[in-house]
Amino acid sequence: MANPEDTAGAADARLVGSDRVLALLIELARRPEGASLDDLAVALNSAKSTVHRALGSLTRSGLATRESLGRYAVGDEFLRLAFEYQESRPEAARVMPALRQLAERFGEIAHYAVLEGGDVVYRAKVDPAAGSIRLTSYIGGRNPARATAMGKAILAHHLSTTAEAVQWAADHPVEQRTPHTLTSDAEWAADLARVRERGFAVDDQENEPGINCIAVRVVTPSGEGAVSVSALAYRTPLSTLIDCVDEVRAVAASII
Question: pLDDT band at 222, cuts 50/70/90?
Fold first, then answer.
């Protein structure tokens, strides 16, 4: 009869092993150029033999691939599963038509994001047909809610007083990402009061230099989020986005 302590110890060892495989997959996802066995062993602070076994599990399942010169990268099967999952989510199916409409109308990038803690997490994104710009946003990526129009659009609904906004800001400090980032808790709370009054939020180059944004809160059967249009400031000034906010609202309202 097996000793319960031995069984528990074996379970713990399996758990550590599975955690290591997941950590390895995450590390590979951070390295689009690929990584060597030595690099991965150092990154995970593990023996090369241990990392090699974990890589074997990932490559056999197609979640990782061994490229030339002994470098490893995320496998096509991982990408297929990720994209298939994203496209099949009811949430994405609901918001994508609206985002495509906004991207076509403004010739700028349209986003949908949700709030998680102190960040917004991007769930959907549509680039315009031409003249696209490179932003820090990507599906699954995060940015500080304080410095984004989408974050402020959502938070304004939950933080109904200046005191609540100041306290939330104090609990979620933000770095000076650009010269326009509102790092002052009081100034940010005052900005959130304007969002509540106007019913939309703006990011005046607060998250990325040269990029402004307008956003409105949306609620769908999948939950609460925000829709935005992010634009090059020189090409589509913030004043233009504000003048067209009713169009953005109307498109957002079409999400069902």
Answer: confident
Decide: residue 13, CB within 10 A, 0-12 exposed, 13-18 middle, 19+ buried. Answer: exposed
Task: Flag whether pLDDT at 100 surpasses 90.
Answer: yes
Domain of residue 72, CATH code: 1.10.10.10
Do residues 55 and 114 both lie within one domain?
Answer: no
Beta strand 142-144 with 201-204 is unpaired
Residues 138 and 23 grouped into a single domain: no
SS3 state of residue 254: coil
Structural domain containing residue 194: 89-253
- Are 120 and 193 in a shared domain? yes
Distance CA 230, CA 106 (A): 9
Q: How far apart are CA 100 and CA 96, in angstroms?
A: 6
